[in-house]
Amino acid sequence: MPSLRNVLKALALTSLAAVAIAAPVPEEAGDACAPPRPIWSHKATTTSLGATSVSSTPTSTPTLVTKPVGDTPTLPPSGDTPDLSGTNLTLQYVAIGRGIQNYTCTGAGSNSTAIGAIATLFDATDLAYSDEALLHTIPALIVNIPVAEASTVQTATQRLDFDVLGHHFFDINGVATFDLDTEDKILYAAKVMSVNAPTDASKGPAGTGAVPWLQLKAKVPYVDTSVGLGEVYRVETAGGNATPCTEAGVITVQYAAEYWFYA
Question: Could you tell me if residue 213 is inside a domain?
């Protein structure tokens, strides 16, 4: 019987034949209740955006990533009290996530309900080790760039090019999934803590504000087993909060964030 991961991968690949890559939603169109759209083009065995082959299932005994040269980066504080808890695990990757937050509405004027996110994860590990301050400026910039073009970011001082590290989505059981398929690692995660984003965080293209910062740990027990990852933090969020409900349906809101992975 095929694994859940392979079934999900097949469904995602099939949907790409009919679904376009998501682009930022203009603020005036942010409250339209449209169905969520997958934002990745495919899952590839290399970090190149042009790769076309599908990755294999992660091995059961992955090798931990070799750290870039430099001091280990430190998770940024949110300024909220209490803040996210620390971890005794070892930093493996830092990624920039660019995608959409999805919400459902039961009707006009109703309260929206979050139903998960879909995002492409770009590898920013080297940047985290070399220039944390520059890293933290990226989500507010990349949230305004169409996902298809988000591998390149022009900062005030330089152009940065990012490889795809993997993808973030919610599986058929509603579990947060981080599939770092270029590294053969995957995390099925459950939220353990949430804090408010800083008041000066980017509100995103829709102007609705930044989603909370999160701490998530491997979900145990679960039908599938995480491989090579035990914990992830979502920090430095930009955009993603829901727009008002104007009718029954689904709202998609553009967002970006940093994801720090530990094992």
Answer: yes
